[in-house]
Amino acid sequence: MSQTPRKSKVFKLKNQFHGLPKEADVNLIEEIVPAIKEGEFLAEAVYVSVDPYVRGLISTINPGDTIFGSQVARIIESKSKDYPVGKHVVGEFGWQTLSIGKNEINKIGFPAPWIIPDIGNLPLSLALGVLGMPGNTAYFGETEVCKLKEGEVFVVTGAGGAVGSHVGQIAKLKGCKVIGIAGSDEKGRWITKDLGFDHFINYKTSNVAEKLAEYAPDGVDCFFDNVGGEISSTIIYQMKKFGRVCICGSISTYNNDSGDLPKAPEIQTPIKMKCVTMGAIRVLDYKDRWLEGINQNLQWIKEGKLKYRETITNGFENTFNAFVSMLQGGNIGKAIVKV
Ligand SMILES: NC(=O)c1ccc[n+]([C@@H]2O[C@H](COP(=O)([O-])OP(=O)(O)OC[C@H]3O[C@@H](n4cnc5c(N)ncnc54)[C@H](OP(=O)(O)O)[C@@H]3O)[C@@H](O)[C@H]2O)c1
């Protein structure tokens, strides 16, 4: 007897985004899911992640394509020995409720779907945040690029978000003085009172240059940049001699078209005068060490050394709204959609 075809809800790009994405730029449709083939599995979305890279990379897909994005999904059918039914995987399947996966690296370079290791009673959604890609960005960004030393002054932008709140805590574990910059006082209270950051600067209501000079009068040893643009230049003007910058992202530019990027003050002079070194973290370069980062972050959580927060939106239909809210600073910690 033939099975009734399964239908997946899918967000498709309708119009290329210009500026802040608009609801009219996407279509939510239903699509029939084909039968799985040898080596494949079928998984049902449980949590969908809304991440800045989706905005940053949107111009690489065309109208009619499924909008990309990672998710935690439960395997409901399988013709692959690597992916048993009942297990939960993280995959870059896109914004859809049913996905066919297989053991291969995805088109934009994400690791092959990985089975979530035993995380005890912790929520599975953490595999999209502190125990997933953003957590690994913080971990490998610190260990491979920042290489912090005790007593150093560390500044992080986007400090109330997934990567920023995490890397700031690692910097505290390394014995640094940590200054977080973000866009709301509520984020500031969380990172200072709960996470132990030493100082907070609200870039929307304070003069960043003045506040930074007050909190770091001798300058900054290491700057972890999530935001780019003018705020970055301001911080780079206050680096110590031989200071280091780790470029992680530039979210302040993601809503600009490539031909119309915002201008920021030149940084060559302060970099040259202070012999500042600039490096970058690209987490997808650490695919081969993926579980190393996750296991370390899990251990820190179990030891009570690493805290996390999630902003959860309920309902797959609200994925696009959750995404736009994240781009506007609506999330504290990791922005997640519970399907
Ligand atoms: N290199 C890598 O491999 C890698 C991997 C993951 C993420 N990233 C990058 O890391 C950064 C943070 O990612 P995430 O997932 O942790 O996101 P997130 O910080 O949880 O969320 C994005 C935050 O960006 C802030 N923001 C938005 N527009 C801004 C603007 N114009 N100026 C300053 N801040 C702005 C908002 O917070 P406020 O309230 O503070 O404005 C918003 O909450 C992004 O740039 C992302 O692209 C890079």
Task: Please describe what this structure looks like.
Helix 2 packs across helix 3 (162-173) and helix 2 packs across helix 8. This protein has nine helices and 15 strands. 43% of the residues are buried. The protein has 339 residues and is of the alpha/beta class. The strands form three sheets. Strands 3, 4, 5, 6, 7, 14 and 15 form a seven-stranded mixed sheet that branches. The protein has two domains: 6-128 and 309-338, Medium-chain alcohol dehydrogenases, catalytic domain (Quinone Oxidoreductase, Chain A, domain 1, Alpha-Beta Complex), CATH 3.90.180; 133-283, Rossmann fold (3-Layer(aba) Sandwich). Bound molecules: NADP nicotinamide-adenine-dinucleotide phosphate. NADP nicotinamide-adenine-dinucleotide phosphate is lined by residues 51-53, 56, 134, 137, 158, 160-164, 182-184, 187, 226-227, 248-252, 281-283, 326-327, 329, 331, 335. Residues 10-103 form the Oxidoreductase N-terminal domain. Residues 162-280 form the Alcohol dehydrogenase-like C-terminal domain. Monomer or homodimer.
